[in-house]
């Protein structure tokens, strides 16, 4: 039916076929080549989403706790991180699940206000340190590699009250104290570190257009200032690791970047240019500085030009000093990608200079064809082939000699479907098949995959209305009982056999 419509419309109007141009890419074929033996299989999580214990044992309020307590209407009724999955009291339960699932790695984050309630080094909360030390020791005792995120959006509210990521004279030294403490206390045991999770969301959602805490809005400015401070904090932390810890701890440090994949909507060179620009404004905003030492040229030029048209005396995109560029360049030991969906990108003519916004600075129209498979979330359609193109693009633009780790991927529904093999199970299978193709057909050095998530959790302002877990969590019982869904069984099979189907071929010799 769809094909016939499109054949007809090709004759008259190619544009309306834009969804169908891609239909041949939606294949249910699954690779039967084993993943590499050393492929790092894991699960990912974040402190606010699972821990609970929001004020336990000396922890102070994070920006998310503050929102839950002061803007309860921003969350579905009562669905916040105060108790969440109660992971703070369930370390043994969760380690047993991770062990049963057979994963080699667990990516989790440390809650800054749990270890440093004032945000600064003057007050170390030893009980908070002890919680993470216990988690890390038990992971290691079970041969599960800890992959630790230092900041997954939940900095102390007291830091935010003094300007948060917009205050460079606060956030940079405070983060460096915090990072140094974590390396001092945990660096002998933890070999995989990321400084910040999804800075595009921290800064865009947190300080520019709103959508994540602290949910401040200063379009076209706040996001760039936050990112500038965050990137400088990252680079200086990386330098501290090199100078003080690397020789004896020998770990890896990076930051976690996220983006949807933006595919040109047509062969028109303008759409191809638009897609590249959108990918650079999203992934490149952070990857370019840590790989090459500065923002992508297209960002620097466009934001400077639009600022000039807005009669501003300087660009809304701050610039790095030569010393900062040198610190940033190469400040990563592996590349990262939180992937989920794909959108099509079309050229959009510049708007006349009006109110600043990242959207107008980028000036690309993006959309998803109606006939692409939906999930519960409006922006999130199931596009497995985007995963392959995305990691190929990362390799082509930023290199893969240090490896690319998929730090998150997962499927959205309401969290309650226990027979989710055909939805969530199939989602991971098809995305992983495309990643397998990227490895063996395109030669991309993808080193591991962290499924989001082991269990249902608090999906920020969505509470538990949206969920991605392989285990259901009964948020209405005191035990927060975890129950496996069908997807847990499938993922367990994959990580314990390195194989997506019943029977696999050995990988070609590398
Ligand atoms: C920024 O941080 C500094 C150092 O902590 C503090 O003295 C100053 O008041 C903060 N600025 C704002 C605007 O809160
Ligand atoms: C910039 O200044 C020029 C000259 O004064 C004026 O015509 C124009 O409207 C201004 N543009 C904006 C966006 O304020
Ligand atoms: C649960 O997932 C299955 C696929 O595994 C799907 O067929 C079914 O419609 C889903 N149930 C609900 C209630 O969404
Ligand atoms: C893997 O797939 C290929 C191509 O479809 C097929 O020839 C081969 O027999 C399969 N191998 C196994 C072990 O099933």
UniProtKB/TrEMBL annotation:
MF (Gene Ontology) = beta-glucosidase activity
Keyword flag Signal: yes
Show which residues constitute the signal peptide. Answer: 1-19
One Pfam family of this chain:
Glyco_hydro_1
* InterPro entries for the chain: GH, GH_1_N_CS, Glyco_hydro_1
Q: Does the keyword 4Fe-4S apply?
A: no
Keywords in alphabetical order: Glycoprotein, Glycosidase, Hydrolase, Signal
Q: Which SUPFAM superfamilies match?
A: (Trans)glycosidases
The processes (GO biological process) annotated in the record are: carbohydrate metabolic process
Record-stated family:
Belongs to the glycosyl hydrolase 1 family.
Subunit structure, briefly? Homodimer.
* Protein name per UniProt: Uncharacterized protein
What taxonomic ancestry is recorded? Eukaryota, Metazoa, Ecdysozoa, Arthropoda, Hexapoda
